[in-house]
Design the sequence.
């Protein structure tokens, strides 16, 4: 008989949420975005009637000189492919240096006034970063970390220190979040809040999370009212008809789909809250 972790190919959160590294899947996604960027800039060259400006080559030279700090005179002798793609595919280059180069491109396009092209480039990168559970996003021309080591550790601590039923809910939430090619974010959120519900019900004997949160104090666990209200509202969010998270989808148009960012927020928040309750119970 296979164990739960084997049935769902479960591994540690630190293996599923990628930070401080850049595996081939993410390198390939970034290079694909540069392929599209090159096509767009080459097509735009044609629009400059009578001019010989090669916009992608100008970007390439800028990276050669300002990102890699190479001599301009050596550019033509070296170049057989894109500077960006060559640099990102080189395993000798550190992961954060590769992100430095991406950020340099973002700032270059902004300085050149190519806002539409920049937005397209950023949207494609962020789409792949979310799809591949990369712990970074491009926000306001900067690459920022959206999932810290502490947040990942919070999930791992909860999995290690919780009872089996809570652990199974969180394990399932993590597995649904990390599914390929697209995560099942609605059900991941459902499993995260179900882990909190299981934790609170076990401490109070109540049959719903709302009642359990209200009766924690009577069972020797005092938490600030603001924190209790925050989780009551999170619980209410998962019960809304337009989300289809815990109940049937009531939005006939089906226009609302929870994102990976929401699923990750719930996974981290619910894990942290369970850790908090565990410590309050000690």
Sequence:
């Amino acid at each position: 008989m296979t164990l739960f972790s084997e049935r769902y190919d479960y591994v540690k959160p630190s293996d599923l949420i990628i930070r401080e590294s850049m595996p081939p899947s993410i390198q390939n996604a970034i290079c694909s975005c540069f392929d599209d960027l090159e096509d767009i800039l080459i097509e735009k060259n044609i629009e400059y009637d009578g001019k010989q400006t090669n916009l992608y080559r100008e970007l390439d030279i800028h990276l050669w000189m300002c990102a890699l700090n190479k001599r301009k005179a050596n550019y033509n002798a070296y170049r057989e492919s894109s500077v960006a793609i060559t640099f990102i595919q080189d395993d000798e280059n550190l992961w954060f240096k590769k992100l430095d180069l991406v950020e340099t491109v973002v700032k270059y396009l902004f300085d050149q006034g190519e806002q539409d092209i920049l937005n397209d480039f950023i949207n494609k990168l962020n789409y792949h970063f979310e799809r591949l559970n990369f712990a970074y996003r491009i926000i306001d021309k900067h690459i920022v970390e959206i999932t810290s080591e502490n947040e990942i550790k919070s999930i791992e601590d909860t999995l290690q220190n919780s009872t089996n039923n809570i652990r199974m809910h969180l394990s399932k939430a993590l597995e649904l979040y990390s599914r390929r090619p697209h995560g099942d974010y609605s059900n991941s959120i459902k499993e995260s809040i179900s882990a909190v519900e299981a934790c609170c019900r076990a401490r109070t004997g109540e049959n719903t999370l709302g009642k359990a949160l209200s009766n924690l104090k009577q069972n020797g666990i005092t938490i600030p009212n603001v924190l209790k209200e925050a989780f009551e509202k999170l619980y209410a969010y998962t019960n809304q008809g337009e989300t289809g998270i815990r109940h049937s989808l009531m939005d006939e148009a089906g226009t609302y789909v929870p994102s990976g960012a929401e699923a990750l927020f719930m996974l981290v928040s619910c894990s942290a809250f369970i850790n908090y309750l565990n410590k309050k119970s000690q």
Q: What stands out?
A: Residues 24-47 form the longest helix (24 residues). Residues 12 and 20 are 15 Å apart (CA to CA). The chain is about 65% helix and 5% strand.
